[in-house]
Amino acid sequence: MTRKERLAQAAERAKAKLASDRKSLQQVEAQQREEDRRQRNRRRYAVGTLADAAGLCALGDEDLMELFGLLASLAEGPSPKAVLASLLSDSAGPALETVDGMACPWQDGGGPYRANEVVAR
Q1: Contact by Cβ (8 Å): 51, 57
Q2: How many angstroms separate the CA atoms of 106 and 115, rounded?
Q3: pTM of this structure
């Protein structure tokens, strides 16, 4: 066997090993993708269960899409739980103090209400 023939055989063996290594790599990558898919599905199921337990499944599809869109914008920030907590605490109820010039819905005339005036009902 000549040197040229030995080099050709070595090249063939290297090509066969490379093809085998590629196939092994593809199999490992497929297993990784499958595991990622399983974990993603588990997470989706868990989030869906939490949404159901919170009563969110009673909302319509459009409302849910809007709600999750708003939540997604919160998730982009540095502390989404703190931001949501502060937003919810700020809007806990209507303001109990009146401001000069504030409209008073229970006043018959519907005119401006002054904080220092008494309104007859």
Answers
A1: yes
A2: 14
A3: 0.55
